Amino acid sequence: MLKVTDEAKQMLNQSMKDYNCDCLRVFTEPGCCGVSLNFGLDAKKSNEQTTVINGVPVIMDEQAQQQTNALTISVNEGRLVIDGGSCGCGSSGCC
Question: Which member of 27, 39, 66, 67 has the lowest number of beta carbons within 10 Å of its beta carbon?
Fold first, then answer.
């Protein structure tokens, strides 16, 4: 499952407060080499359930859940970063 460090939790929760959002949305979109993950702050829709990960409400579909198993959201030099991902495109040159 996706991991969120304590430092990233503080930054995400403050950003959600600043931008009047109540969740981190993780979603997939088709790209040149298959599906890509996207992250954004959003407002939860009435029919959605959040998963709380280290104090951060997260909404993601099943496909996004599968792709985030080895990922960690952390902070590096004051910026949020996603650690643990790798490009699976091989030598196609599209990454």
Answer: 66
Full-model pTM? 0.82
94 in any annotated domain: no
pLDDT above 90 (res 31): no
Number of structural domains found in the chain: 1
The answer to whether the CB of 8 falls within 8 A of the CB of 75 is yes
Tokens 């298959």 found at: 34
Q: Which residue do the tokens 């950003």 mark?
A: 15
The confidence score (pLDDT) of residue 86 equals: 56
CATH of the domain at 73: 2.60.300.12
71 lies in which domain range?
A: 3-83
